[in-house]
Amino acid sequence: MALKLLIVHPDELFRKHLSDRLRVENCRVFEAAQAAEASDIIQRDSMDVVLLGIGGPHPNRLSLLKMIKGISPYLEVILLTEAEEHSFKGTIQAMRLGAFDDLLLPVDIQTLLLRIREAFKRKKERIKKSHHEQFR
User: Fold this and answer.
1) What's the sign of the alpha-carbon dihedral 64, 65, 69, 74?
2) Mean pLDDT, to the nearest integer, of 102-110?
3) Of 71-80, 105-114, 127-136, minimum mean pLDDT range
4) Rounded CA gap, 43 and 27, in Å?
5) How far apart are the first and last CA of the chain?
6) The CA-based dihedral angle spanning residues 79, 85, 91, 92, taken in that order and rounded to the nearest 10 degrees
7) Burial of 74 from C-beta contacts in 10 A (0-12 / 13-18 / 19+)
8) How far apart are CA 5 and CA 113, in angstroms?
9) Backbone angles phi, psi at 5, to 5 degrees
10) Is residue 76 helix, strand or coil?
11) Which of 25, 68, 87, 119 has minimal Cβ neighbours within 10 Å of its Cβ?
12) What domains are there in the chain, each with its CATH number?
């Protein structure tokens, strides 16, 4: 079964290029340009990993990250940050809110694939641990 991945980014060309590349790697890819679209997709389909590349100020991305974790706590989120928008404070805040990683763009596709697979593995482990604890 293919990993279900949501790419949230305002740049359509970027989303399409990345989606096409990740489909070659056996990912089932969904796309959203804005937070409302992302919310609809996450509520409708069970995603495994979100690549969150919403441009603009970190508070907007952090709000979307909170919303994603509120809908689906086990869903792993990898932030994709433009180098000129990166801040350590923003990364630390995102990690505290449950982000899996914050990668700087442009990112090597092999590095991105590795982090996606690690995020997917972590999601499965967290779900397994939660179910195990429920039945103790």
Assistant:
1) positive
2) 94
3) 127-136
4) 19
5) 29
6) -160
7) middle
8) 11
9) -125, 135
10) strand
11) 87
12) 3-134 (3.40.50.2300)
